Amino acid sequence: MGSGRCAADHFRSKDYETSAEVFEKSMLYVPHDMENRVLRAKSFRVLCLCYLGLAQLDRANEYIDEAEKVFLKMSNRFYFLRWFKIHLQKEDQNCALSQIQVMKTCLDFTPDFLLLAAHEAIACHAFPVAVASLSNLIGFYASGKTIPTPEIVVFRTLVTILTNDQCNEPEILKYIKEAHSRASEVGSSCFFGEGEVARREMKWFAATSWNFGIKLGKTKDYALSAEFLRVASEFYGLLVDGQVDENSVMICKSLILAISAMLASENQKGELLDIDVKLVVELLDRAGKVLKSISSRMQLDDDQNVNLEPEFHILYTLNSYEIYGKMNNKKSQQLIVEKFASSKTCTPAYLLQLGLTACQGPRPNHEVAFFALNQCLSELLSSPLPDYTTAALVMRKLITITSTHKGDTDDDAVYNLYKQAYRIIVGLKGGEFPAEEGKWLATTAWNRAAIPIRLGHFDSANKWMKVGLELAGLVPGMETYKACMEDFVNGLDKKVGVHKRGENQPQMTVV
Fold first, then answer.
1. Does residue 22 lie within any of the structural domains?
2. Which of 178, 291, 378, 412 has the maximum number of C-beta atoms within 10 A of its C-beta?
């Protein structure tokens, strides 16, 4: 007995080598009968701990085996925990994972031991084992077991552990969504707690979901990004207390970016299924309602906490436009663009973006494109310092859209655009309007006279040649072209009379 107490003293002072030596010697005096069975098992267990402390894992394993031989009931959770720790220190994670399942069959097992196992695994950096322990523990909450550790803490710990390794995003999403489901099932106050503690937990899950959504969006994993951002909007929704605040802004941002990610995923997975389109429509509806409440709040005061950046307004408009296109709803496309054009967040750059989007892609809407680009041009020209380079680009696009979409059915519409270009350039100093764009306007206007001349429509031809000449006279470097144009016009005037008497018509030179 004295040697046992001496060994125990050495063990408490962490002198494991001396403690093991004394325990081994004292074991020589313990009888091998049934009465002393528990004492022998305990001694072997302490010896196991001593050799664990000395990092002599094989010796520790030998003693835990001896303890089990003595302790005939193979259901004692303590022995399985010792085995579990030995496997962890040997870095044998497969055996440690198996031990978790065996431990659950012990007669004296309680869920707390899974938490202890998780702590041991974390200490040994065996994160997959820790995840397995905690995921097993979660199952006991759903079955109604009383466990001292709050369920939300287990979920948060699980997610935190999984973030230590790369490529765990699907697993992280799984547990975050499961946490949200449990909160919906048992109630937010029961799952998260009350007061400021609950708000911190909600914010943690919301921010974690948001951060993963943004990260995956940057790496172009759009499908997974959309899932994270959708669940982020749900967590931020739990934080809203009926007033428009910064959480309302985060709901709106999360929804808009989730929709953008879903639409972007089409480039990787192909067209969205009907069920996905329906989901996007629902998300757009939610985002639209929050956006409306935020806009109303912003009109009432200048609270920076509820300020939604302009890029989210244009992103919402672009998303809506694309979804309406999938539904072949051109009227709604027109309305959403007109609504944005009348908003305070609208800029010429955004209108240009909308116009270019509307005239491209598999489902172009030329009416929307013309509206957006025409509005863009008007705003550019009404600016105190107009950007004539962008104005020239917009003018070219307007002419191209009108020509290709309306063709020859509305020649006057195209002509009016060229005349508008002339009026823009005529009052400018040399070099303010891009020379290349000016040359393009002059030559394309001139070339439009070619077909009317061949058809003998000299009035129409003269109209186009005249505007071509007018534009050429305003563009530096086109003097030679202009002289050739004037020579042709003079020659044409002389030959028109001859042509009317039945002789050969003149042939136009295309520039």
1. yes
2. 291
* Whole-angstrom distance, CA of residue 310 vs CA of residue 316: 10
For residue 83, the model assigns a pLDDT of: 67
| Residue 77 predicted with pLDDT over 60 | no
Q: pLDDT tens-digit profile of 103-150?
A: 787 766 778 778 878 888 888 888 999 999 999 999 888 888 788 889
What values do phi and psi take at 194, rounded to 5?
A: -120, 160
Nearest to 179 by CA among 144, 215, 209: 209
Residue with tokens 């951002």: 229
Burial grade of 114 (CB within 10 A; 0-12, 13-18, 19 or more): buried
Domain end position, chosen among 44, 72, 100: 72
What's the CA gap between 471 and 418, in Å, rounded?
Answer: 9
What's the residue count for the chain?
511
Identity of the residue numbered 209: S
Hey, what are 442's tokens?
Answer: 């002059």
**42: containing domain:** 1-72
Closest listed residue to residue 172, CA positions, set 210, 118, 220, 219:
210
Does residue 392 contact residue 433 with C-beta atoms inside 8 Å? yes
Domain of 66, CATH number, reads 1.25.40.10
Q: Which residue is it, tokens 């709901």?
A: 251
Give the end of a domain, one of 45, 72, 99.
72
Torsion over CA: 437, 439, 442, 446 (sign): negative
> Please, where are the H alpha helices in 163-221?
169-186, 188-192, 195-218
| Start-to-end C-alpha separation, the chain | 114
Mean pLDDT for 69-86 is 61
CA distances from 42 to 14, 56, 89, 339 (A): 18, 19, 21, 79
Residue with tokens 């894992």: 57
**135, 174 contact by CB (below 8 A):** no
Its pTM stands at 0.81
User: How does residue 101 score in pLDDT terms, banded at 50, 70 and 90?
Assistant: confident
Nearest residue to 325 (alpha-carbon basis) of 285, 374, 362: 362
Which pLDDT score is estimated for 73? Answer: 47
pLDDT at 27 over 50: yes
Pull the structure tokens for residue 230.
């959708």
Average pLDDT score over residue span 454-477:
90
pLDDT tens digit sequence for 222-271: 999 999 999 999 999 999 876 667 899 999 999 999 999 999 999 888 88
